[in-house]
Amino acid sequence: MSAGFRFIAGRPVPMPSRAITSSTTTATMSSTPPETTTVAPNRYAFPSSPAANPKSVVSGGSGDSHYRFTVLTDRLIRYEWSEDGGFEDRVSTFALFRNFDRPNYMVVDNKDGLEIVTEHFRLIYDKKKFSADGLSVKVGNDTWKYDGKSYGDLGGTARTLDGAWGRIDLEPGVLSRKSYAVLDDSNSMLFGEDGWIGVRKPGRIDGYVFAYNGDHKAAIKDFYRLSGRQPILPRWTLGNWWSRYHEYSAGEYLELMDHFTKEEIPLNVAVIDMDWHKVNIPAKYGSGWTGYSWNRDLFPDPTGFMKELRKRGLKVTLNDHPADGIRAFEDQYKEVAKYLDHDTSNEEPIRFDCTDKKFMDAYFDVLKANLEKQGVDFWWIDWQQGNRSKIPGVDPLWVLNHYHYLTSQRNLKTIEKPITFSRYAGAGSHRYPIGFSGDQQITWAGLEFQPEFTATASNIGYGWWSHDIGGHWSGWRSNQLAVRWVQLGCFSPILRLHSSKCLWNSKEPWSFEPEASKIIKEFLVLRHRLIPYLYTMNIRASYESEPLVQPMYWNHKEQEAYTVPNQYYFGPNLIVAPVTSPNSNVTLMGSVRAWLPKGRYVSMFHPHISYDGDRYIRLHSDLSKVPFLAKEGTIIPIDSTPKLTNGATRPSRITILLVVGADAHFELVEEPEKEDSTTHPPLSSFVRTPITWKQKTGILTIGPEWNGSGKWREWSVKLIGHTNTDVQALVPRFKVAKTDGCTIINLGNVHRWEPDGFEIPLGEDLQLDVVDINKHVFDRLHRAEMWYDAKDGVWDTIAKSKDPLRDRIDRLYRMDVHADLKNALMEIWAADGRSPGSAKGHEFWLESRAVVDEERLETWDDYVLV
User: Fold this and answer.
1) Where in the sequence does UniProt note compositional bias of the Low complexity kind (predicted)?
2) Which domain range does residue 780 map to?
């Protein structure tokens, strides 16, 4: 079979047999490490096509006012103005690929003004210096008037969460509730033809109007076309990372890694914070934040230490605060000085200077290359010292992120793809994953903001955030808070446990109380089981411009989609609504207000409960679970290896989580069999296994595997939320079990090269089980901590009364019982319109929030009728 399929849920969508290509296709880069300390090949070379198609350019002007407009698409236009008649065709940190095909547009040009009209916008310009009165773009029912600012009221992201107690202001993205968004690029850093940094001429104006009128996905796709696609992450990045700001010794760190193995908690990345290097240095040298010399008291054999980490299946990254340069106490001071012809006689420091090309060569090809030879796989760039340099407009963070990423290619034999771990520097930063969001304080308010912060980052194309899961510092200890944060981490782009240097604050799962410890472990294991799904989403993100995490309004035009900022898609068809407040003292569950689009959804953690969509609903989960919903017609492949280990090898056992009720398709994508050092290999080179479910016939097809080795692999199928059909009668030669609202079929070893794929009949037109209202109402009422006598009245009202439904609902609403309990029971009563006696369509919801007083560390309840 030569054609592929797009990575979507639903029916298979044929693709051409050739690789997907676009203007942002990257070139092959060498993976050979430099043998000497000369400049690494391709250090300054990266794919770009910055000059626009001449047929798309409208320009003119005279005297001291000159303009240029570039119609990139019929919904995206670049606007430029200069006093001297010069315009910018170099690469900016944002715009790498301006050479688009000419779209359809019309120009009306006369002495009084200029108009540019496409199917989607109308630009009007008075040919003077840009102003609110002189330059406007009408899109739909909205009109943008030039003001020199970026605009995108749906938010983007921010450079850091350092010190954030809760919500912070976000920089704008390129999506908006209005019909347009604007990205002002006038002050961004540039790169010359030789790949080295450049600066803009002051006073010139340069920006982009995104005229997408609510078509958010189209806007993001063109954003990536212009700025460059998201890179492919290595598989190992998608598992668990361990990080802690702590003075570990080599022995202590290795013992800790072995403890994780003993607890059967898999890890992929060992992050060593700044105490790997000398910190307590003589006062004459300044602070100890910057350092490149191993602390031999803690790490007497750095090479041996990192070799031991690699033996344990771990990648190694070291923290780097580069602001203070290389000082005389450093082990490599003289070697770097020799490279730079720096006088060492007075122990003058070698100042960090990101604008000096020779210094940056020494920084990478002497200082860091020598450490990489010892075993450092990649770097954690923890730049915290501002955005200024010797040259106005050159941001050190941009310089570090960009050139670290290009330089990381020399370690491809161990890290597989280039990678940077650093902070967000502005639009275009998505090309240098992975992001480090900073030192957030440990508060419920901080957790409450993080899902929204993660989702809106996709509005500026930034799809791979890594947060300090559990929070970094300050705040207070809470088992519940730690559990809820790890649950969010499990359904985040990257899961990295981290904490500050504090005797009381660490994130080892076994350091929490037994219940919390068990739950944290379960979610860390689940994260690794999700890697087959996550890696496919990684490829989807890069080749199809679909970030893993997406706000609800990316996929739905309904107004309700904009009212649930903490709810998001986690790949196609999967919705996460994290619990970000303490559990109720009555129901012993956390809750969250959610909105479900049209369709029917099953709870992946409560598979015996499914929900009709097209409405708001309050979802409840005890501490061991989180609202994680899948729409009918969903397939999720997970690693079902009995005992997971460190690293992220391709699993030999896979379980297909199948949500019946509609046709489903998923294409499992894995790395090419042959090692490929290119940043974006042809899509046709990846190992790909289509998995298809036909709802009407009940046929599940696995394979055939394309481009693979043809080895056997053990498969199982888990029907989520379906137990009513006797599957055993249809598949008598396979082992079938039913457990906790699911049906599991063990298929055993299936050869990957079955000519037409492996087919198995599971039953025609299977449906999700109907919710048993009385059973689940009883369970929740039984667990509720309240007066026994009050339970009788609630139970009689829901389960026994023969009164009209509306009267019973009204009676429950007026009862003198806690609002949390009413909400928890109404979730069940109104969940499934197919259930006998369902309250769907008559539900009420009471807002009951556990509000945390961050000053007094106390909680209370606030009840408001919605």
Assistant:
1) 21-38
2) 773-841
